[in-house]
Amino acid sequence: PFGLTLGDGLVGALVLGGGSLAVSIAFERLAQRPSMGGGDIKLLAVVGLFLGWERGLWCLFAACLVVLVMQMASRLREGGKGIASQTFPFAPAILVGVVIASIL
Questions:
Q1: How does pLDDT run across 36-89, given as a tens digit for each residue?
Q2: How far, in Å, CA of 78 to CA of 33, rounded?
Q3: Angle between helices 38-77 and 6-13 (to 10 degrees)
Q4: What are the pLDDT digits (tens) for 10-51?
Q5: Nearest CA to 92 among 72, 67, 56?
């Protein structure tokens, strides 16, 4: 799809999957708490495989914005306590990001 070659897809999988894995490991070592689940990392690798690294990065950016909006809405609704202290599934936001990146 999108005129990508196999090499473009593999680079996208490496950039998104490998990059998110590296950031997750670094965060977990520094913060001493879990960050991103393995399913989210695998999903990002598959997204990179199909969208390539450029659209994949747009997807990741859009997913982060979606999560930010959801966090702010939750905090406003819950009176400032929101879901920031709980684990939050990132996969739905990634899938919204896929739709946005596919349209761009």
A1: 888 999 999 999 999 999 999 999 999 999 988 888 887 787 776 655 556 678
A2: 24
A3: 60
A4: 999 999 999 999 999 999 999 888 888 889 999 999 999 999
A5: 67
Question: Residue 66 CA to chain centroid, in angstroms?
Answer: 10
Count how many domains the chain has: 1
Phi, psi of 79 (to 5 degrees): 75, 35
What residue has token string 């969208």? Answer: 51
Q: Which domain holds residue 57?
A: 6-103
**Model pTM score:** 0.84
Measured CA to CA, the distance from residue 72 to residue 88 in angstroms comes to 13
Measured CA to CA, the distance from residue 87 to residue 31 in angstroms comes to 15
What pLDDT, on the 0 to 100 scale, is given for residue 74? 78
Question: Which ranges of the chain does DSSP label H, i.e. alpha helix?
Answer: 6-13, 19-31, 38-77, 91-103
Cα angle 98, 85, 99 (rounded to 5 degrees) comes to 5
The answer to whether residue 1 is domain-embedded is no
